[in-house]
Prior knowledge:
heterodimer, A: 268 residues, mainly alpha, B: 163 residues, two-stranded antiparallel sheet, 4 helices, 5 strands, 48% helix
Amino acid sequence: MTSIIEEAEIINKYLCQIKKYLPLGIRLKKHELNDILDEIEEHIWEKAIESAVDKEPNDIDIQIAISQMGEPQDIASKFTTKSTPYVYINEELYPLYKKCHKTILWSLILLTVIEILFPNLMFPLISYQQSLELIFVVKLFNTLILYFTFFAVIGIIFCYLSITGYIPYELRQYSKPIQIKKPKFKTNFQNFVITLEISFFIFSAIFLLLWKDDYFTYMSIILFGVSIVKCLRQLKRKSVIWQKFLILLDLSLISWIILSIESTFYIL
Amino acid sequence: MALINSEKYRYFVENFESEILRGISKLITLYAIKQKGEEGIYGYKLARDLKEKTSNALVIEEGTLYPILRKLKADGLLVTKKKEYNGRLRNYYIITDYGINIYNHLMGFLTYLISSLSYIIDIDVKLNEERYLICPNCSNRIEDGQINKDYCIVCGLNLNHFK
C-alpha cells in the first residue's frame, strides 16, 4: 500500500512540474488542464505496467516510464502554440481584446444613461442640485475617464497574457542560437514619434517645475525620469525584461495622464 | 573526424529532419487512428502502434504525441470518448468524417509529391491505382468507398474521364 502511495507521489511530482511549465492559456482552463494531466498519468501507468510484465509496477518502473516520457519542460513546451505578435498584443488575442473594449464601452454608456435618467437610483445619498447640462457633462467625462482607465488595465492584462503565451519557452530556448536582428536604423516616422514623446515629457517637466508647487515639482521629477528612459529606449537593448519594462512604463503613463487630466478638471 | 560529431552538422540535420517529420507525424497519427474506425484508440496504444508500423523509423516522442492529438482534436479532425479500464479512464481518439476528408487529401498530396520526386530521389514509385485514385486537380486521394463517385468531393472535378 505504501509503495502505491510512493509511486503515485512520484507521478504527481512529475505532473506538477509539467503543470508549472504549461502555457497560461491551458492552466486557466481547469477542465482541459486536468484532461492533459490525466492522460499523461495514464500513459505513465500503462508504460510502467508493461515494463513490470506480470508483477505490480514499482517505483523503478515508474521512474523508467517517466524518463522515457521526457523532461517536463519539453512536454509542456509542445503544448505552447506559437502566437503571432501584433503590436503589443498577440494576433490570436486581439479579437478578444477588441470584444472586451466594446463590452466595457457599451456597459459604461448604459450605466451613464441610467445614471443621468435616474440619478437617485445609483447614488441616492448624493444630492443633484446642479443643472442638467452640467450633470450630463460631468457624467460623460466620468465615463470617458473610466473607459480610459479600463483601457489601460485591459491593455496591461492582455500584454501580460501575450507575453506569457509564447515567450517563456520559445524566446528563452532559442534566444542563444538564433538572434533576431533588428533593423539598424529606425524609420523616419518612428524617429519623429520618439522625438515628439521625449520633447513632450521634457517640456511638461519644465512647465511643472516653473509652477513652484511641491506636488508639481515632484511630478516634474517623474517626467524628467520618463524622458531619460525614453532616451535610453533608443539604445540597442534586446533583453525581454527591458522590453516588458518599456511596455509597462507606457501603459502606466497612459493611466497616469488620464488620472492627471481628471484631477486637473476637478481642481479647475 | 566523423561528420556526425560536429555540432553544427548535427544541429542542421536534426532541424531539417524534424521539419520534415513534423507534418508527416500528424498524417501518420491520423492513419493509425483511421485504421481503428469507430472503436478508436487511446494514447499509449497509439504510440506503440506507430512504433511498430513504421519499424521505428518514425518515432514520435511520447511527450509530443499528446500535443499533436490535442491540436487535431481542436481542429475538429478527431473526437474523444472516455472509456473505463481497470478503474482508470482512458481517452479514446476517433477520427471524424471531416478528419477522413483531410486525411485523404493530405495523403493524396504526399503520394503525388513522392511520385513526382521519384526521378529526383532516384526511386521507383508504383501507385496502386486499383485501390485508389489521385484527383488530378487537387491531389485528393479517392479510396475504395468513394471511387464510384462521379465527382471529387474536395474540388468537384468530374472523375469519369480519369477512371
